[in-house]
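Many introductory courses stop at the sequence. We go one step further.
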Amino acid sequence: MSMEPTDIEARDRADMEQLQAGHDAALNDLMERHATPIFHFLCRMVGNEDDAHDLAQETFVRVFKSAKSFRAEQKFSTWLFTIAANLARNHFRWRSRHPNISLDAENAETEQTLGSTLPSNTASPKEAALAGERAAAVRAAVKNLPEDLREAIVLCEWEERSVVEAATILEATPKAVESRLYRARGILRERLKSWL
């Protein structure tokens, strides 16, 4: 049975109050609810599961260290995704200065989760192969977007965040996020026109 968003928000606030009061175990409850969405968000942002795993762990380290700065009127998930987005930005800056460090860079384009490679029950092998190729092409096209456009697309399209919430996470205006989405969609349409 899944919880309603308002129930989750209330539990998040209560756990943050506990964490601020020095009850470190409250972090475990927050991680239980949010570790998987943060990991998936970071996978889409950095395109590498190992890096995403490290960044997800660092996100929760930052939550622990910065718990005192959380304000009860904030939505915890927005605050959490802001931390994760900033870590992803820092990761890309570091990678741009150290381009030859990763030994897995050649395989980054072909990395897939088990779920993305499994065909549906009704798809033929040919359809499944085409769907896999299409998904890989979309992931590659999104990965090659400029950072600001990639962030907007991942948050609004894959993470299903509202433009207003994405703007808060990205520390931008809603109008700027809408503009980024428009530009990103145009670039993706052009790059993926052979798949449309």
